[in-house]
Amino acid sequence: MALNTHVQTSFSNHVLSYIEKLFLELVKKELLLAPLGMAKLLGKRQGNTIRFIRWDSPSGSVSTLSDGVTPDGISLTTAVVNATLSQYGRFAAVSDRLQDVAINDTLKDMTGVLAYDAALSIDQLVRNELDANGTQNYADDVNNSTIAAVEAGTDKIRSTELKILLKNFRVADVKPFENGLYRGVIHPLMEFDLLSETSTGTFMELVSKTSADPTRKGLIGTAYGIELMRSSNIRADATSTNTYGNIFVGKDAFGTISIDSLSPEMIIKALGSAGTEDALNQRATVGYKFWYVAKVLRTVAVQTLWAYSVGV
User: Fold this and answer.
1) Which partner for 115 in 26, 97, 251, 298 could form a disulfide, CB atoms 3.0-4.6 Å apart?
2) For the segment 69-104, what is each residue's pLDDT rounded down to a tens digit?
3) Residue 180 phi, psi dihedral angles, 5° rounding
4) Which of 18, 21, 34 is nearest to 217 (CA)?
5) Structurally, how many domains does the chain consist of?
6) Within a domain: residue 109?
C-alpha cells in the first residue's frame, strides 16, 4: 500500500501563516512611539486613506438657566484629518550553505530580526511625523530658539525643561493619558544627563520615588506629570550627532493605523525561485511588506525638545 507523503510545499501556506503571526507579535513587542497615538482600524477593501476626527474643546458656560426657558444649544466643532497610507518593506537573503550548516531555525530567527527592523521603521515613521509637525522646544529656552543654538551652547536637558513641557500641555488643555500622565520618549543620553543632575530637587530624587514597571519596554519612571521612556530611535539633528529631538505627547496627539490592521505580508522565496538569476539554487529570501501612516492631529499636543549631550 502506498504511503501518503507530504512534501515541503504541502505545508507552505501553514508555515507562511505562522510566520506572519509571529512577525506581527514580535513587531508589537518592539514598538514604543506608535502605541502612543490614536489607533484606527482599516479594513480590507476600504482604500488607502484613513480619516481621523478631532474634537475641539468647548469653552464652558456660567450663564444661569431661566425657569421654563430652554437655552440655545452649543456648537460642537470638529476637524477632519485625512491621512494616506504608504507601503513599506524590506527583505534579507540567506544562502543554501547557511541553511545547511546552521544549528538554529534560520527562518524563525530571520523573522525575529525582520520584525525588529519593521518596528524600528514604524517608530521612525511616527518620529519623523511628530518632529516635522509638532511644537519645537529647545533646552535653555531663554537663550535658545534654534537647534544650532542648543548645539553651540552645549545645553543639556534638565528637570526644568520637563516642567516647562508640563506647563505647555496644561495651559493648552492637552488631555493626559488614562493614568493622568503625559508621555515622553527620550534618548538614553538624555536619561544619563537627567540622572546626573546635582541641583536641589533633582530628577533622580523624584524618579526614585516612583515605580518603573520592568515589563514595559523602555520605561524609566514618572517625573513632573510625565511618564518617561527611553529609546535610541530618537532622531539626532542632521548636522549634529550630539543634539537630539526628544518627543513628548498627550492623549490623541496623533493618529496611526492600528498595528492589527497592518496585515503584514511575509514573502518567502525558496532556493532557485529566481530562475536563471539563481542558477545554482544558492539564495533564498525572506521579506515583509505593510501599509502604514502617522498623522499629527493637534500640534500643541506634540512637543519636541531639542537638547545636547555627549554622555560624559
Assistant:
1) 26
2) 888 887 777 788 888 888 899 888 877 654 554 444
3) 85, 5
4) 34
5) 2
6) yes
